[in-house]
Amino acid sequence: MNPFYLVIPAAGIGLRSGRTGPKQFETVGGHSLLTLTLSRFLGHPALAGVMVALAPNQSPPDDFPVDPRIRLCVGGDTRALSVLKACQALPAPADAWVLVHDAARPFVTHDDIDALLDSLADDRAVYLVGAVADTLRTHDGETLARERIHRVLTPQGARLGTLIRALGLPVTGTDEVSYLQAAGVPCVAVESVGHNLKITHPGDWALADALARQPGF
Ligand code: CTP
Ligand code: MG
User: Fold this and answer.
1) Terminus of the chain with fewer CB atoms < 10 Å: N or C?
2) Is residue 125 scored above 90 in pLDDT?
3) Coil, strand or helix at 18
4) Residue 158 and residue 163: Cα distance in Å, rounded?
5) pLDDT score recorded for residue 87
6) DSSP-assigned letter for residue 201
């Protein structure tokens, strides 16, 4: 398996989470969310290096792993800018494979990571998606065919140089694929076999805590 690098944007403020501080420093299942998320990747044999983007003047959590592969940088005002700055700070060649993964998604599975890595090829991008369970209806009453829609998750990956070029484009988006598509990069969706919960709203904390305390997690 080819070596890969990991970028974790962790410079957000968690406005929707219902907590007073940034959510990535909150405790879930006895560990900080950021550490929990990082730990999903650190045991992967192909992981070559990690760049974590933190807000200015933000220290890592007390339980942050000690690992020579991990480096820190300062993020930006948007998620995209945090990812761009982390990519620019990553000591890796332009053709290195990079997975970008939200600090707020501690339940990504090893199978999903491997499925993404297996799909990386040439100069294309890959991203994890999940099926939609609910009926989807717009505010003005149109019901959407859920078979035509998927939830877009992270990790999302591409070559380092491709990511830097795409994230510098004058478009806006809440994920890497929005930028990569604008750059004309073919983006391949990989179906997730896990739930990959992103802790976003106040109701997510109790569920995340219960999941993180499961034996074998
Ligand atoms: N993120 C970042 N830099 C920003 C904004 C977000 O690195 N300027 C990171 C968050 O820390 C998080 C990931 O991007 O790990 C996904 O973003 P989201 O879940 O939206 O987190 P927040 O932006 O912190 O939350 P909210 O949108 O509720 O304020
Ligand atoms: Mg946000």
Assistant:
1) N
2) yes
3) coil
4) 6
5) 98
6) S
What pLDDT is recorded for position 217? 84
Tell how far the Cα of 183 is from the centroid of ligand 1, in angstroms: 23
* Ligand 1 pocket, Cβ-based, cut-off 6 angstroms: 9-17, 24, 53, 75-79, 82, 102-104, 198, 200
Tokens (6 digits) for 133: 């369970």
User: CATH says 4-212 is which class?
Assistant: alpha beta
What are the residues whose beta carbons fall under 8 Å from the beta carbon of 71, sequence distance 6 or more? 49, 50, 51, 52, 89, 90, 91
- The answer to whether the beta carbons of residues 84 and 53 sit under 8 Å apart is no
What backbone phi and psi angles, to 5 degrees, belong to 59? -90, 155
Tokens of 174: 């809440």
Annotate 104-152 with DSSP letters as a single string: T-TT--HHHHHHHHHH--TT-EEEEEEE--S-EE-TTSPEE-GGG-EEE
Dump pLDDT digits (tens) for 103-124: 999 999 999 999 999 999 998 9
- Calculate the dihedral angle through the C-alpha atoms of 175, 181, 185, 189, rounding to the nearest 10 degrees: 60
Nearest residue to 21 (alpha-carbon basis) of 45, 48, 67, 55: 55
Burial class of residue 211 (count of CB atoms within 10 Å of its CB; 0-12, 13-18, 19+): middle
Give the span between the Cα atoms of 176 and 154, in whole angstroms: 9
DSSP, collapsed to helix, strand or coil, labels residue 5 as strand
Backbone angles phi, psi at 118, to 5 degrees: -65, -25
Ligand 1 atom at shortest distance from the alpha carbon of 154: 16
